[in-house]
Amino acid sequence: MLFSSEDETYHWAVEFGRTLKPGDMVALYGNLGAGKTVISRGVCKGLGFDGNVCSPTYTLLHEYPNDPPIFHYDLYRLEPGTDICEVGLEPDYLGKGITLIEWPERLEENTAGITHIIKIEILSETSREVSLEKVGAEQ
Ligand SMILES: Nc1ncnc2c1ncn2[C@@H]1O[C@H](COP(=O)(O)OP(=O)(O)OP(=O)(O)O)[C@@H](O)[C@H]1O
Ligand SMILES: [Mg+2]
Q: What is the CATH classification number for the domain harbouring 44?
């Protein structure tokens, strides 16, 4: 998909967010400034959360009070290859929430549980190529 403004990307993400189910985990790949947080903000909106959504760069995880709850990670500062269990990437062990992960590259192959992969490519200052892939067991 080609989005030529932040708004277009955001509005797509709102619709995408509405399709997510408790237990879903979304990995957001893309360089600095690609739009991972823009998409996270849209997904949160689509799930009914109206509060502030920003990259949790200094805290690793933001949890947003919502029904379903939303767990928003930014793993930028993690050592590559960190074990997913070591960082406690599964606060959602009951599968009741939606998990969003910026910089999933830091997990290398430890990506068990991820249900959706979004890749964002910067084409120009205002345009982005965005792909969505569903993975794992889906019924
Ligand atoms: N088509 C577009 N879609 C999304 N963002 C866009 C688009 N065009 C321009 N932008 C701009 O790109 C930036 C994306 O920032 P955002 O914080 O979402 O990136 P990020 O991938 O989360 O980066 P980081 O790795 O630093 O967390 C914003 O400043 C936004 O306005
Ligand atoms: Mg971000």
A: 3.40.50.300
**pLDDT, tens only, 92-117:** 666 789 999 999 988 877 777 899 99
Calpha distance 82→92 (Å, rounded): 18
Whether residue 139 lies inside any domain: the answer is no
31-48 in b/e burial notation, b at 16+ Cβ within 10 A? eeebbbbbbbbbbbbbbe
Give CA–CA dist 25/84, Å, rounded: 13
Look at the pTM and tell me if it is higher than 0.90.
Answer: yes
As for how many domains the chain has, the answer is 1
Does the CB atom of residue 106 touch ligand 1 within 6 A? no
In a domain? residue 42:
yes
Residue ranges near ligand 2 (ion) with Cβ within 5 Å: 36-37, 55, 102
Beta-strand ranges (E) seen in 14-135 are 25-29, 61-64, 70-74, 98-102, 116-122, 128-134
Mutate to test the pocket of ligand 1, among 1, 31, 37 (most ligand atoms within 8 A of CB): 37
Strands 128-134 and 2-3: antiparallel
